[in-house]
Amino acid sequence: MRNCSIAGILFLFIAFSPLAVQGQDFDIVYALNFFDGVTYSSTLVPNTAGEIFIHEDHVNAFVVRETVLYYWPLTSEFRADWASRNVPLQGTLNIRDRQGNIMRIEAQRYTIQYDMNDIPGTIGIYWGTEADAKHAEFSEAQRDYSYAIHAYNAAMQLYQQIITDIMLNPPDTNIVFPEVPMRPANFTIMSTGLNIGFSVKLPRGNYSIFFETSEGNIIPETRKRLRVFGPRERVGGFQVFEEGRWTVPSNFPDSRMSLFTVPGSVIYLQPFNYLHYEARAYNLMMNPQNRFNRSESSTWVPASLNTDERQLNINGQNHDLYSYDVVQVPGSRLGYIINPTYLGDPESSFTAFKFTAQTGSEGKRYNIGQMSSISVLRVFMGVELIIIIISLLPLAFFIIVIKLFRRSW
Q1: Is the pLDDT confidence value at 205 over 90?
Q2: Residue 34 — very low, low, confident or very high, per pLDDT cuts 50/70/90?
Q3: Three-state DSSP string of the chain
Q4: At residue 403, does pLDDT exceed 70?
Q5: Interacting residues of 147 by C-beta distance below 8 A, sequence separation 6+
Q6: Which of 74, 251, 258, 311 measures 20 to 30 Å from 204, CA to CA?
Q7: 368: closest CA among 328, 298, 309, 284?
Q8: What's the CA gap between 146 and 178, in Å, rounded?
Q9: pLDDT computed for residue 56 by the predictor
Q10: Is the distance from CB of 215 to CB of 241 less than 8 angstroms?
């Protein structure tokens, strides 16, 4: 009887698992490689999403795929089970503008490549014969790197053997050690490989989109509203690093805002370019299933490091732009030390203007340029003790009530 129950549970699990695709209808979805304002990202547009958002004046790759969707309750989203079904459909992508004009787009090969050392500055999407050439170039560079690593390993093995022989049988004359083999620079080029998709690049505006099969049939699930948007403005700002937690920068994009700190603190202002977007459009571009959006809110997106200005004027005093190297402190002390280095050092951790809020500067305001500022907060001694006392008041009241209750009982 127990074996029958186990068998029944296994049958139900297999029958309703997303891997059990026999005898069921497949789902038609859009799979996108889209430009997000800085780099290329990917997302899934299921049937439940009625609208697609993309960035203006940049090429995006649309692919219509047949797959199996399953619901993921942890994020309240539908996900694709690509392992069980992943079939690109053959046909034509159609885009209609507000005047009724239809743009018919045929599929072609594409690839996305970038250098991990400078993703925003090197990322690109390539189509057709250019994609073939870029993919061949990437494959050749990958092979060359593999050969270089193989040669380095062989040279290193020979070097270690020579050193061992010298140490075991030292010569009578002066010892001449061979040069240490140099390891090839890391291979940092990344590529998505060759794919098949539809190239979509549109000016700002509202459109509609649908997919037509090779047989001339329009797939109803592919009818979507397509909104093309762009940034409201591009401004300069800062990513702010605190010396005590340099790995968690804060965004300071708006020049009309004030940055608050405490006396004795050391902060680093890394100049950054920011893009200002409507939050709803940007969030739905990143995730078409994101339902928690407010149309009136906005969001700032850090776009790229800005090193054009080498000096920052704070209260009439010029601060120079430096690169900084973060060095971990070994031993029982742990922690790290932030050391200045030359500007543009490829081994540096970040580039910024350093600012120190001197002890005793409570309530002081430092002007940055023309509009923004740094305000030093007043620190009231004993605040922590007051907070602890206030937090203990409910517990003390509860104890008094219990004691009074026991006496009366």
Answers
A1: yes
A2: very high
A3: CHHHHHHHHHHHHHHHCCCCCCCCCCEEEEEEEEECCCCEEEEEECCCCCEEEEECCCCEEEEEEEECEEEECCCCEEEECCCCCCEECCEEEEEECCCCCEEEEECEEEEEEEECCCHHHHCEEEEHHHHHHHHHHHHHHHHHHHHHHHHHHHHHHHHHHHHHHHHHCCCCCCCCCCCCCCCCCCCCEEECCCEEEEEECCCCEEEEEEEEECCCCEEEEEEEEEEEECCCEEEEEEEEEECCEEEEEEEECCCCCEEEECCCCEEEEEEEEEEEEEHHHHHHHHCCCCCCCCCCCEEEEEEEECCCCCEEEECCEEEEEEEEEEEECCCCCCCEEEEEECCCCCCCCEEEEEEECCCCCCCCEEEECCCEEEEECCCCCCHHHHHHHHHHHHHHHHHHHHHHHHHHC
A4: yes
A5: none
A6: 251
A7: 309
A8: 24
A9: 96
A10: no
Q: What is the mean pLDDT of residues 32-56?
A: 94
CA distance 45 to 51: 9
Nearest one of 102, 122, 104, 121 to 113, comparing CA atoms: 122
Cα-based distances in Å from 229 to 32, 53, 97, 124, 253? 16, 7, 14, 20, 20
Determine the residue type at 285.
M
CA distance 47 to 222: 8
Task: Please check the confidence at residue 388 and state whether its pLDDT lies above 80.
Answer: no
What percent of the chain has pLDDT above 70?
89
Name the more confident of 384 and 102: 102
* C-alpha of 377 from chain center: 33
Amino acid at 1: M
Could you tell me the two tokens for 13? 């699990």
Cα dihedral 399, 401, 404, 406 in deg (nearest 10): -70
CB 204 within 8 A of CB 56: yes
- Tell me the pLDDT tens digit for each residue of 312-348: 888 888 889 999 998 887 765 567 888 999 888 878 8
Distance CA 183, CA 154 (A): 11
Q: Give long-range contacts, CB 8 A cutoff, 24+ apart: 125-134.
A: 125/33, 125/35, 125/40, 125/59, 125/61, 127/59, 127/199, 131/194, 132/194, 134/191
105-131 burial: b if 16+ Cβ within 10 Å, else e: bebebbbbbbeeeeeeeebebbbeeeb
Asked if 238 and 270 touch (Cβ cutoff 8 Å), the reply is: yes
